Amino acid sequence: MSRLLQGCSLSGCFEQVPVGFAALAASLRYQATTLGLEHRPSYGDPLACGLGFSFHHPDLSPIEGMIHGWPDGSAHGVTEHTVQAACGLMSVHGRASGKAQGLGLDYVSTLSASLALQGALAAALGQLRGGRFNHVSSSLGAAGVLGIGQYLAGATAADEAERLLPGATCSKNRPPFVSADGVHFELETLDAEPWRRFWAAVGIDAEQAGQGWKAFLLRYAKAVAPMPMVLRQALARLSMARINALCALSGMAVCPLRSLAERRADEDLPGQLKQGPWAFDGGVTDGRTLSALTSGELPLNGLTVIESCRRIQGPLAGHLLAMLGAEVLRIELPGGDPLRAMPPCVEGVSVRFDALNRLKQVRELDIKSVAGREELYERVRHADVFLHNWAPGKAAQLALDRADLARINPGLVYAYAGGWGHDRPGESLPGTDFVVQAWSGVGEQIGQASGTPGGSLFTVLDVLGGVVAAQGVTAALVHRALSGQAVRVDSSLLGAANLLCAQSLQDADQPQASLLKGVYPTQSGLLAIDCQTPAQFEQLRRILALDSQTTAQRLDAVLGSALLSQAAQTWQQLLDAAAIPACVVVEDLSQLDQDRRLKPCLSLNAYTSVNAHWSFR
Amino acid sequence: MSIFVTVPTLLRTFTQDQKRIEVQGQTVLDVIEYMEKQYPGVKERLIGDGQVHRFVNIYVNDDDIRFVDNLATVLKAGDSLTILPAVAGG
After folding, report:
1. Where in the sequence is the signal peptide annotated (chain A) (predicted)?
2. CATH for A516-586 (3.30.1330.10, 3.30.1540.10, 3.30.230.70, 3.40.50.720)
3. Which of A171, A274, A352, A517 is the most exposed place for a label (fewest CB within 10 A)?
4. pTM for this structure?
């Protein structure tokens, strides 16, 4: 279908933005374009404490959006790099990459742009339903914290909290693996049996293979995968051709790590970049309007979302819709989602699970049984959104595909948060986070920036994919409210990967945003510095009394020794006063709540949870 | 022969909130059958069609039984059995 939100526009000054907000502005503009929003340039204040924009439609009052640097409304020292340091993302990525360090991608900026647009779309929906939502604010810092919400829950649980610091596990004995002929690759299977067969064929004994499987399963929960060394060593003696053959025999999926240059050459890419991370497909126009708001607190109050999702991406999408006020009903298999028991638990529920699902109602239902399906049909009849993340083909098998549900509820927004998306270019492989990182070039980019062979064990794409899915649903609801037309919305981990690299995929010669960027040890703690302007760089040289003749090659070493004279916290204050972006790197997630800038987005209960991302008025 | 089982939160409704129980059995399957007698309903949460559910991991001491002898994995006195949910995929 044509661009979803034609007739809507976004105005803002996206070319001249405050230092540190450029990547955010670029992503916001790109996403707005792919949604069909016309761009109206306006003048902005480059010294403002954030990025402002406004959303327009002839039937609506303008919606003023503001993306602050930090949740407390300040913007001191904000850049992608410093936010990754302060919100704990460097810490989580560092668990398996050897040390606290950034992802090397504009991750929080992309996440934040997606969330900010989602907030504006929700406000539009709220207005269309009779509410008064004229302003929506959010922040880069809160987006970063939202991204690591599950890990934060695990690290702050009242009972049996995890203590996994940067460098917790070896950065070499983890996936991806490398073959004798130097090919880096990811292995993936969702079952133990292919794993067992594969390693037996490689010549690894069952005990070591079992230890490897245990480590392999930790990736999704804890961002580590401490493999026995023999696994990696054994594969390093085999050619890629041999490994491929053994994978085929044992039912293990294998995906070589592809470069961004390879991804750029894929035939599907231009279409995907033009389309954006969603594929919208219009359905019938049934003329029914969405229910009017009865209570004015949140824009999605009174709307019902039925979610049949497991793990991270889908549940996060449902969680965001619940944060916007929707009543989300989670369908779980009889006995409940097994992940409810994933330690650490507080009051009988996994805190990691709770972090993504605490705002939802639950109905246990066997959707494979006739009775279960009938009940689901009945519930769908009165719902506004149906969201799932099943494996490809399963929806049709269960008679729960779009057409099946449209017969019951023609106005339903049908959303699928999948792995490979509408065009399914990599579909022969399982569409899981680490495989899609490898295939999409995201893994290569992160590996290059981190000095590791591949992507992050932080679930980079599950989290961004979840945010993108919720944004797509919100856009579809706005379209539904404006036109009366039902919409199917497909989003995917691959779409999230394309979005994350959209600027580099479109222009291979992207200028480097930073003149100096790094993480440095100090007398106490690590400090992230990111000089983006010559003035900031000169100021830093002056404060640290660095010789102006110091060569670029020696700069890091000289800087490193100069910073050893003070603690990171002191440097942050000193550099802040001189308007140089610098932040203490949070290594222990349980310390996150000590940062007064982040406090407004956190709640301290049985674990530290992340508050609703948006503030409306 | 006493075996100790660490009970996951989701099964504690069956075990009257006990986190650790002492059971008897020569193999993992014996232990599950023993638990079923003491705490009816547990078995179907762990196994179906004679196999451990895909989303459940059972460890004997530190070893995943799928890499030993599955439900036929032999136990010795004092072994500790841990049941955990499996997370594969994101």
Report:
1. none
2. 3.30.1540.10
3. A274
4. 0.96
